[in-house]
Design brief:
Layout: E1 2-4, E2 7-9, H1 11-25
Antiparallel strand pairs: 1-2
Length: 27
């Protein structure tokens, strides 16, 4: 679990962000 102040991401959310960025830059 990542937590930055009040902002937290679950492992699933992190994976979504990573794959989203990959698909964005490779499109």
């Amino acid at each position: 679990m990542f937590s930055l102040g009040e902002f937290s991401l679950s492992e699933f959310d992190v994976l979504v962000l990573i794959y989203g960025n990959i698909s964005y830059f490779t499109s």
